[in-house]
Write a structure and sequence with these properties.
Blueprint: H1 2-6, E1 17-21, E2 24-28, E3 31-34, E4 37-40, E5 45-50, E6 56-63, E7 73-77, E8 80-84, E9 87-88, E10 91-92, E11 96-100, E12 108-112, E13 124-125, E14 128-132, E15 135-139, E16 142-146, E17 154-162, E18 165-170, E19 173-177, E20 182-184, E21 200-204, E22 207-215, E23 218-227, E24 232-233, E25 247-248, E26 251-256, E27 259-267, E28 272-280, E29 285-288, E30 302-305, E31 310-314, E32 332-336, H2 342-352, H3 354-357, H4 366-389, E33 393-397
Parallel strand pairs: 6-12, 32-33
Antiparallel strand pairs: 1-2, 2-5, 3-4, 5-6, 7-8, 8-11, 9-10, 11-12, 13-16, 14-15, 15-19, 16-18, 17-18, 19-20, 21-22, 22-23, 23-24, 25-27, 26-27, 27-28, 28-29, 30-31, 31-32
């Protein structure tokens, strides 16, 4: 009983939020499919994964709880987890909430940001966000607008309108300044990407990158960036060589100062994808990773940078979400996309071979001993979960050694 409690794992889900702060990964929201019905996950729970030890725990929350939703946009900034937008049974949201992850209390408290200046974005879900210089910068998404809110930055879904309300895709940028508590819509230069939702975004330096996404029946594979200081769009990048196929519900994650990692999604043929690609800013090229398993597709999952340029992929679906028998996941897939340091290799070796090393581990210097104990816990927890479900946690090595 004690072991089962110790090595718990966050519930399966898709369309959730995930973000990292310090040495922890935080998971909130999303939905599962139960008897062909979409059920939203509890809004008063935040699941926390300790990156060093590999252990999960659940934090209860109170305060101004966000509604239980899917498709919200989550981001960590200065120790606070912000949740914006999303969709529930009542429709689309344009409300902003945050919780202080460093409050030091066991029960975290949500705050609904109501007192602000400026105009927030229109209600939407499946949008993206860059956290940059104390600002949350939102782009795109699918949602609704009234007739007097229609503009060039909104592509109307002609099959979905009722009365004076229209549904469709966005390509506008909205900024929330967390210091000034103000919504700002900057004047952006050059042609923005086509309006879209279920795309991916990532930050490198002062550039906010956007890849793919869906508008109408098209799933795209274009790459764009916006300079977040000058507010200038690239106008679309002409990338050298082979490119990933068009997709939506995928993820894009920074893995170095000049590289992005693309994983999974849903193809134009509505096929779940399990491929991974690295984009290099230095060469302006995509390179497909050849060593990924083909039986672990993911879509509407989340991906966050871990330690040593790892990428942590959590949850999502392994099936087309439009099918009734949707296979939601709670696996944590850990991708190694850069060589590990010698220290990391040694600590992992200790963690995997504790029974062989025996009492020698206690002879390590104090600081190294603390790090070694966390890796021992990590590999013990990993083996425990794998013994229960064969494939509960993975570590994929994409470097030939």
């Amino acid at each position: 009983m004690a072991a089962a409690q110790r090595y718990c794992v966050a519930e399966e889900r898709s369309g959730h939020c995930a973000a990292t702060d310090r040495h922890s990964l935080y998971i909130w929201g999303g939905y599962v499919t139960i008897e062909e019905n979409e059920v939203y996950l509890p809004n008063d729970e935040i699941w926390v994964y300790d990156i060093d030890s590999g252990l999960w725990r659940m934090h209860l929350t109170n305060g101004d709880l966000p509604p239980s939703m899917s498709g919200s946009c989550g981001a960590c900034l200065n120790g606070k987890l912000y949740i914006f937008g999303g969709y529930d049974d009542k429709g689309y949201s344009n409300q902003l909430y945050y919780v202080d992850l460093r409050s030091g209390t066991e029960v975290l408290t949500w705050r609904h940001i109501k007192n602000f200046t400026g105009q927030p974005p229109t209600p939407r879900d499946k949008l993206s966000c860059w956290a940059y210089k104390d600002r949350l910068i939102y782009f795109g998404g699918y949602g609704c607008r009234s007739h007097n809110q229609l503009s060039d930055c909104f592509h109307v879904h002609e099959a979905s309108w009722e009365g004076q309300m229209f549904w469709g895709w966005n390509n506008d940028i909205h900024v929330f300044d967390t210091e000034e508590q103000a919504w700002i819509q900057p004047a952006v230069k050059n042609t923005p990407p086509q309006a879209r939702a279920a795309h991916s975004c990532a930050l490198l330096g002062n550039r906010g990158y956007v890849f793919g996404g869906r508008v109408l029946q098209t799933r795209m594979n274009d790459l764009h960036f916006v300079n977040l200081d000058a507010w200038t769009w690239s106008g679309g990048m002409q990338v050298n060589g082979e490119k990933p196929k068009g997709r939506s519900w995928h993820t894009l994650t920074p893995i170095a100062a000049d590289q992005l990692f693309l994983f999974g999604g849903l193809s134009s043929e509505s096929a779940p994808l399990s491929d991974g690609w690295i984009y290099s800013l230095a060469t302006n090229e995509w390179k497909q990773l050849k060593h990924l398993p083909k039986d672990q597709p993911r879509l509407w999952h989340t991906a966050c940078p871990g330690k040593d340029n790892e990428v942590m992929v959590f949850g999502g679906s392994k099936d087309d979400l439009l099918s009734l028998d949707t296979g939601h996941c709670n696996d944590l897939l850990i991708f190694q996309v850069q060589p590990y340091s010698l220290l990391r290799l040694c600590l992992d070796s200790i963690g995997k071979n504790t029974s062989v090393l025996g009492n020698q581990i206690s002879c390590l210097p104090r600081r190294l001993l603390q790090q070694a104990k966390k890796r021992i816990t990590f590999w013990t927890a990993t083996r425990f979960r794998q013994s229960r479900r064969n494939s509960s946690s993975y570590e994929f090595n994409n470097n030939k050694t």
